[in-house]
Every structure is written in C-alpha cells, then in structure tokens.
RNA sequence: GCGGAAGUAGCUCAGUUGGCAGAGCACCUGGUUGUGGCCCAGGGGGCCGAGAGUUCAAGUCUCUUCUUUCGCCCCA
C-alpha cells in the first residue's frame, strides 16, 4: 500500500489513448452541428434526487451503482451516472422550452458508476450523448438515428448492427405487460432462470432480455410487443423505419430489445458489436416522452442516445492505425555553444506553425539521429559549430535521407515546402 | 454484489522437488573526424503487488489483503 495507485475502475489516458477520444470528439463536433445540435456542458455533480426521479428508483443504476455522498451541509450529492438527467434539469431550470420549440443538445464527458470493472466497462467512463427535445414526430426519431449512424460511420468500427424496437406508450404498454405476464405464468417455471421468475412479477418485459439460453428458447414464442401496440405507436414506428430504409440505413427489429432505464417510451434502439466481448453494446437510446414532465417540467417529449467512448475505442484500435500525428522536426545541438541558437530556432519554427522537439541536452550525432528517428519527426535539424558560424542549420529529410544546409531564417519555409 | 484466472524489469513472460533474480523487446552508450532504421558490443534498470505465517532458507508452500483481467448481474 506504499504505492499510490489510481482508484479502481478509474483509468489514465496517455496520448496514444486520448488520441482516439480526440478523434471521436472531432467526429461528433463535425457531424452533430449539421443537424443543428449544440454542445451543452452540465455539471458532473448533481443533487441525488435528480437521478432518483429521472432514472427510476427501481433500477440497478440508482439502487447500487451511484457515487453518492453528503456535502458539508448534509445534502446528498451524486456524481452523474448518465447525462440525460442533467440535460433535462438544465432544460427545465432555464425555461428553454419557452424560447424554442425544438432544442437539440449534445454533451461529451465522464460518467460514474460503481460497477465491477471489466472489458469496456470502467467506473469512470465517457459518453457522447445527444438529446432532441420538443418534437413528438417520428421524423425526429429517424433523424437522430441517421445522425448516430453517420457519426459511427466516420469511426471505422468494422461490423456493427443497429437494432430497433418500440416499447409502446402509457396507453398500450400496460395491456401488453399484462398479456406477457399472463403468458409467462402459463409456462413451466422450471424453464426460466431464477432471475426471470422474479422479473416476471417486477418487470416482465425484462424477461425477454435475459441472456440465459434456456430462457431465450422458452420465450421464443412469447407475445410480441409490436403486435400489441396502439395504432398511434405502430404508425410512429412505421414512419421511423420507412425513413431509415429510404436513407439506406440498415437495421434489424429486435423484439427483445428492452432498455434498462425506466423513462423510455416508443422507439428504442441499440448499436451492438460482436467483437468486443460481453459488453457489446456500443450505443443505445430511445424516446422518453414522459421524462421531462415527471421531473416537474413542461409536457415536452424527447428522444436521445448515448454512446460509450471506451467501447468505441476498443473497436477503433482494431484497425491498427496510428492516431498520433507526426511531428515536423527534431532539433538537436552538437555542442554546448549551439544551444542558445537552437532554442531560438525551435521557437521560430513553432511561431511559424510547425511542431516538434528541441533536444535540451547536447547530443552526439549518432544519438541525435536515433532520437530524431524515434520521435517520428519528418525532419531532423542539426545545429553544430559549423552551422552556428554559417548561420545555417542542417536539415535532413528522415524519409529519404536527403540533407542540405538551410539558412536559419528560412528554415520554416524549407520544412513546409 | 457473485464466480473463474492472474500479479516477477517500462512491456511480454520464463523461473524445475523451496537453494545466488532471468530472457526477449524497449531504453541508454559505444562500434575512431558530424549522420537514424539493420547488425554487433556494453550498460542502466527489481521490496518477485502488499502484509502475516511455515522453514536453516520462500519468487516458489499456507493464510489475509490489494490490484488487474474474463464472465454473471446491469448497462454505453
């Protein structure tokens, strides 16, 4: 215990790793604004009540996964376990609905859940989150899904699948819930796992989502949600799917797709990958028409999604590409007398927009070249007594080995050419 | 919260029935005047995750603990 260590489930991202995150953020900031989404940054810390009321007190997230503690005035605070709640709070608190009929926000940042860490799951993890508030129309669903797929498409993720389902609305879901529960109760209980027998009572929809193979077999012919929805919900989903087909966005209907958070209604979707182990869900979202009013805000519907950046990073890494950019130069002095001039030259180059390393110690030629090679710089710049006297610097192209003396005043231009 | 596996050099890992702490890669320095990658030579690097115990002797055996990892659960 002498060594100070990072907290379990909290990771350090070195430049090779953060380069992937940077690339995701850049893709998000390019794609989302074209759909009129603007970035909203909300606090990492909120009053615990916000999450209890939005995510649902019965969920695992609220019951056992939140980082909750009291501040000096004994108020219960929680590190955000997801982004939607904070966005909703900000939306309501600032009366945004009164200013505009449709609000579109994205947010990027860390979330915190006290779970057992494993592949693709950290206690501090990062999400890219989008919320579209205001429209009730199916076009909003189709648009945000198209946007998500366009965003993911920029990331070179390999095989991913978009799955869609509809959970119905408060008018038709209770009836389906009852039909499903009755059907489940007619089964031989021995065919279901312990969890499912419990879920049958508390949350029958979750039984469909069980991963135990025998449960899946035995519920294969369960009543299908989509066949028991009201005409409005059916029409809504049809419109969403029609637009996706027209846009060439491929998807599959997953009758078992049930989301974990209580506030979802109608359209739900998830993007999954088979190649990163058990935590294969890369993005997920859906419509939450009752959430804002249940938090004390106006009766404004919404739809949104979240993607897990650590999981995206796992998929991006597989194409083995270099995400770090190459420096322009590596500049070394061969003698102590040259170091002042080297420092000046490095600053001139940086002032001209070039990037690279200045070797602080005087190095031998061999060592300087080895360092230049290792830095992956495009050019090695060498400053020795000869160059110092002549007002030049030796510029070596590391790709082809071509080398020439260039006046120090013109070095920046030579590197750019 | 529940299971399985693993912690030895910066990284990947050897280490026999308990008996001097190792390799490869990486790093540094050289291989005669100031030139990288390949090759060769040399060098720096270790509380063997931590703490107890057994023993003349523990990297090795026992227990505890921490961490990592793969699953379950849940979720992005």
Helix content: 25-40%
Corresponding CATH architecture of the largest domain: 2-Layer Sandwich
Proportion of strand residues: 15-25%
Domains (count): 2
Average pLDDT, rounded to a whole number, is 90
CATH homologous superfamily name of the largest domain? Bira Bifunctional Protein, Domain 2
Distance between the termini: 55 Å
- Helix/strand-derived class? alpha+beta
Find the CATH topology of the largest domain. Answer: BirA Bifunctional Protein, domain 2
Shape type: elongated
User: Main beta sheet: strand number and arrangement?
Assistant: 8 strands, mixed
Task: Give a short overview.
The chain has 417 residues and is of the alpha+beta class. It has 16 helices and 16 strands. The longest helix is centred in the first third of the chain and has 17 residues, at 15-31.
């Amino acid at each position: 215990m002498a060594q100070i260590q990072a907290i379990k489930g909290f990771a350090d991202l070195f430049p090779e790793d953060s380069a992937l995150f940077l690339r995701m953020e850049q893709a998000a900031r390019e794609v989302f604004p074209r759909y009129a989404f603007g970035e909203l940054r909300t606090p990492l810390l909120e009053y615990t009540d916000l999450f209890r009321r939005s995510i649902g007190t019965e969920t695992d997230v609220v019951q056992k996964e939140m980082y909750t503690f009291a501040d000096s005035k004994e108020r219960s605070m929680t590190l955000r376990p997801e982004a939607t709640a904070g966005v909703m709070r900000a939306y309501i608190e600032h009366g945004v609905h009164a200013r505009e009929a449709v609000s579109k926000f994205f947010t990027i940042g860390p979330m915190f859940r006290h779970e057992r860490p494993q592949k693709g799951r950290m206690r501090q993890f990062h999400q890219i989150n989008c919320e579209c508030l205001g429209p009730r129309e199916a076009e909003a669903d189709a648009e945000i899904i198209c946007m998500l797929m366009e965003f993911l498409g920029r990331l070179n993720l390999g095989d991913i699948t978009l799955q869609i389902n509809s959970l119905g609305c408060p008018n038709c879901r209770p009836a389906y819930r009852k039909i499903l529960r009755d059907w489940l109760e007619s089964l031989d209980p021995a065919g279901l796992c312990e969890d499912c027998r419990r879920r049958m009572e508390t949350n029958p929809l979750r039984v469909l989502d069980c991963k135990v193979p025998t449960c899946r077999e035995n519920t294969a012919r369960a009543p299908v949600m989509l066949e028991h929805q009201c005409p409005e919900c059916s029409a809504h989903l049809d419109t969403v799917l029609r637009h996706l087909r027209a846009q060439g966005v491929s998807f599959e209907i997953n009758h078992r797709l049930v989301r974990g958070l209580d506030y979802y209604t109608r359209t739900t979707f998830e993007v999954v990958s088979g190649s990163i182990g058990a935590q294969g869900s890369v993005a997920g979202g859906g419509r939450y028409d009752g959430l804002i009013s249940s938090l004390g805000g106006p009766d404004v519907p919404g739809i949104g999604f979240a993607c897990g950046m650590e999981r995206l990073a796992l998929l991006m890494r597989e194409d083995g590409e270099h995400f770090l950019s190459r420096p322009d130069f590596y500049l070394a002095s061969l003698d102590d007398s040259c170091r002042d001039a080297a420092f000046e030259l490095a600053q001139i180059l940086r002032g001209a927009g070039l990037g690279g390393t200045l070797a602080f110690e005087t190095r031998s030629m061999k060592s300087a070249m080895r360092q230049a090679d290792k830095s992956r710089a495009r050019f090695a710049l060498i400053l020795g007594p000869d160059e110092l006297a002549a007002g030049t610097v030796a510029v070596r192209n590391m790709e082809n080995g071509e080398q020439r003396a260039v006046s120090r005043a013109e070095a920046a231009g030579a590197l750019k050419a």
